[in-house]
Each structure stands twice: as structure tokens, then as C-alpha cells.
Amino acid sequence: MEMPVKLTINGRTWEGSVPPELTLLRFLRERLALTGAKEGCGIGECGACTVLVDGRPVNSCLMLAVEANGSSLRTIEGEAGAEGVQGVREAEGARSGGELTDLQQAFIDNHAIQCGFCTPGMVLAAQALLERNPSPGDQEILEAIAGNLCRCTGYAAILRAVKQVAEKRNARGER
Amino acid sequence: MTTFRYEKPSTLTGVVSRLSEVEGARPLAGGTDLLVQLRARALRPPLLVDLKGAPELQRLEGGPDGLSVGAAVILNRLLEARVLDGGYRALEQAVADLASYTVRNRATLVGNVTNASPCADSVPPLCVMEGRVEVLGPGGRREQLVQELISGNREVQLARGELVTRIIVPRPTAGTWSGFLKRKRVRGHDLALASAALLRDPERKRLRLSVGSCTPAPNLIVLDDMFAKPDAEEAARRAQATIHPIDDVRSSAEYRREMVSVMVRRLLAEMAAAV
Q1: Which of A109, A175, B33, B75 shows the smallest number of beta carbons within 10 Å?
Q2: Phi and psi of A122, rounded to 5°?
Q3: What's the whole-model pTM score?
Q4: Does B44 touch chain A if contact means CB atoms closer than 8 Å?
Q5: CB-based contact A128:A98 (threshold 8 Å)
Q6: Helix (H, G, I), strand (E, B) or coil at B94
Q7: Residue B41 touches partner A, C-beta closer than 8 Å
Q8: Which residues of chain A neighbour B101 with C-beta distances below 8 Å?
Q9: For B249-257, which contacts have Cβ atoms below 8 Å and span 24 or more sequence positions?
Q10: Which residue of A has its CA nearest to B5?
Q11: Measured distance CA(B220)–CA(B192) in Å, rounded
């Protein structure tokens, strides 16, 4: 029996119904075609599925889509001002556009991406950290991304990228 | 994933009714343990009752009467509210290192207790602090110590339709010190391969120790007799006598035993330096 769901995704409203057992991760990937969030483990240990729900990073593999009813969701597709919602079978072939955020650019500049599988979740976890703590120390950054496993980079480049963004934002007087 | 029905009552009464009306119905709070079990088909409930719509279960209070943590309160909210600052140190340390920041945005304290994994990080601190659960069910309301609620590996003493609505921790007496240590394989997100919580209450002259991840049910070791002159080796010996560690993917039993003794000594040293 499908459950009604109304939520905002990357600033746009989505309304429809979902089976109760559909996870938020599968909902994003299969119903909204937002494939940035990945299934790395399916049990909340790798963080590749990390998205922001009401500003908080969560493992979308551990949430039911129906639990997101009434919430405001952000995925990686929404960060760069891209077309964040393609709807159900609409906007076929629509391309994401827009300028990368400073954090996304810093990941590129610091070689904090290799295979890219962890990257959407990692960027969102880091972005959420900077939104709640604009001047994190190394330990605070590591704690914030401890739920995001990266098999490629060894984390040092990721840490550098996040610190660089924090420093630049603080120098500009931004929060 | 198995299929099930989903309901989100807007009152606590509604939650308790549905849990008792539907056989096999399970409460859903953070879902960080439940969804893993559903995915593995270890559980096949016909109905999930979402607790997050009942305002009573979102209540978080910390004051002169102690600490009250509703079943739907996420761990990060518990930390952000700073209610654990006033003498609940061991619990604060355990919650701050539970899983990952991301998991703590969904996971709950009541969920950690009622899931009753032997590795549950909040259990050793709650045991030394005499933490209790409030249970609501068809038979009415009752309270139970955490170490009596949990009777074994993922076994809780809850009858059909009974729900743990909150965790209550009595306000620690002035001067109480507590500490928690957790041994993991990695510095990040990991279960405890062994843990320990120690509490010293100078007003009631109590010294209490609880070891985690080494017994199927919660473990509480009374060291009151050595309150005046704590003996680390004797405390470690008593801890060893109570534990039954196993070999598993996270650790050998032998290493767990070794780490328990190390943590007991370290906690007593930390306590001595602090008091």
C-alpha cells in the first residue's frame, strides 16, 4: 500500500506516493533519477549514500522514503545550482548546469577525488559541517567525515580541501 | 527488503495502541539498527509504527530532577543540547563516539538500549549511572533499570505492545566523576570491541564499573568496598571474572580481555587524577 509523500528536493517540491519499504536512497536514484547518492554498503557504514535532510547529513540507505515526508532534502545535484529534480520521467536529457561550489572546486583543485564514488556523500558531509561550524579544526573535520569512507585518496587531500574552503570563507567574512 | 505497512501516529497513545493491536508490529525511531535487520530479513514485521510523530517522545529534559531522553530524540540533538554536561560525563563520552556523526543524526539513545546489542555504547554508562527505562504498554506504566531490561544478546524484557518511551538518568550527586573508554579497530566509525565505564560517587561512597562488548547482557561490577582506596589490579581481576569475550571479526577474545584490564587501569588512573 503506497504512502503519500510531499517533500522538497534541492529547492523544488515533489509530491507522490511510495511503497513503505522503499529506502530514501532508492527513491532518490530510481524515482528522481538523482544518482549522485550511491549504495556502497547499504547498512550505514560507508556514507556513499549521504544526503542532507533538513540540513543534517544522513545515510539515505537507512531511511525510508516515507520518513522524508515533510522534509527538505539536498543532494549533490543541488549544490552547483544544477537542475535538481527531473521529476518522474520528465526533462529527459536535461543536463545539469551551473557553477561548482567553492567546496566542489576545492576537491578538484586538491585532488580529493579519484574514482569519485565517495565524493557526493563526502562533499555533502563537509558542506554540512561548514554550515554548522565555519572554522573547524582538523579533528572536527575528521569527525564530520568519519562516516564517509574513501578507498582511493587516503583522506589527506580531502582534509586539505575542506580546510582551504573554511579558511577562504572565513577570510572573506562569510559563514 | 521485506514489505510492511507503515503508520505514523500523532500521539503517544496512538503509538502504544497500534503496537499492541498488531501482532509483530515494531517501533521505528532512527531506524539505524532496524533497517539493517529488515534488509537482512532478520525481521519481518507486518507493520512499522513511526515514533517520530508523537511529541511526548521528542522530549529532552535535563535539570535538577535528572535527565529524561524521549525515544525519538536523536543522539546529535542530545549532544547539541548540552544536557549531558552536568556530571553525565561517561554517557556524554559514549554518545559522542557512537557510530558516526551522520548515523547520530538518526540514531536514538532509546534505540541503542532497546536494540540491546552487547556492543551498545550507551549501556555501560547507563548501568553505572543507574539509568532506567520508562515502559508504556497495555498493562500501564513501569520503570526498569537498563541492566534489568536487557537480558541477553538483543533480548529485552518487553511484553507485546510495550514500548520504551524514554530513558531516565537520576541526577548525579555533586562531586560524582565518571569516565568511558572505547577500544575500536579504527579511529572512525566502529563498534566497540571492548569498552568500560567507571563512576565514583563520593556522597554515597560508590565505585561502579561496567564493561561493554564482552558479555551477552549488561555487566555491572560493584567496587564500593574499595571506594576509599581503589586497587586497579583487583578491579581488573574482578572485571575479568565477569566477562565472557568471544572471537569475532572485530577482535580475538584474548585481545578483548587484555584491553578490558588496560581500560580499567586507565579509568582508575584518570579518576585518581581528576578527584
Answers
A1: A175
A2: -65, -45
A3: 0.95
A4: no
A5: no
A6: helix
A7: no
A8: 57, 125, 143-144, 146-147
A9: B250/B185, B250/B190, B250/B191, B250/B193, B251/B185, B251/B193, B251/B194, B255/B193, B256/B193, B256/B194, B256/B213, B256/B214, B257/B214
A10: A20
A11: 17
